[in-house]
Amino acid sequence: MNALPLAAGCLGGLCLAFALLYVAARRLDNYGIVDIGWSYAFGAVAIAYALLGRGWAQRRVLVAAMAVVWSLRLGTHLLIRIARHHPAEDGRYRQLRQEWGAGFARRMAGFFQLQAASVVLLAIPFLAAAMNPAPRLAALEYGGAGLWLVAISGEALADAQLARFKRSGGSLGPVCDVGLWRYSRHPNYFFEWLTWVAFALFAGASPWGWLGLLSPACMLYLLLRVTGIPATEEQSLRSKGDAYRRYQARTSVFIPLPPRPSHP
What we know:
The structure is a single chain. The chain is an all-alpha fold. It has helices spanning 3-28, 33-52, 57-85, 91-100, 104-122, 124-130, 139-167, 187-203, 214-225, 229-240, 242-250.
């Protein structure tokens, strides 16, 4: 199947899937489940591209495997976290309830559909690789696969360290600043972005693969300016106050760097 019809078909399927997910979110009264659906959707799209793409079979299998492993790890991590705290909802969505007021349900329906579109946009590297007929892997693809391994390992480690901190019940202090969190306030987001850099690098060896650069660019914008860091920082300031402000003063916001000296 050609690339554009394949992407359009995936978009249609995702729009339907996210509409059904929205119905489920309304019944559960917990809209945080959209994050779970968003994560798992990438694995489904990657499998569709691998099955229906016209590229070299081994490359299609490899890029799909990379996408599925990332998708399952993140989606399952979010599923466990949300299930553990249900019916409590993620603070970002509680804040949106307040900001959107009476129009919350209607605007959230559009938000769910926007997630479907974002999956297709961000999955451009999977599509480019799945359509590449070259019968061997290029150096860029080996580099992308290696960077992917580093990125997914870093994100899993950051998530595990944060989960361990939360299980401590406050004995380690009010703010998680252990492990990777000592060097970045959002190491999970940094390695999440690095994963998309890896996907784009892998796609760079394919015809039209340069379009895959849109994925890390869009992800960086979302993390730095929209749904990632800004919302998380606001929630942390509301819940942790001055302790988090001190953490902000000494710790890099995104890229892991040595902590800045603390001042009295």
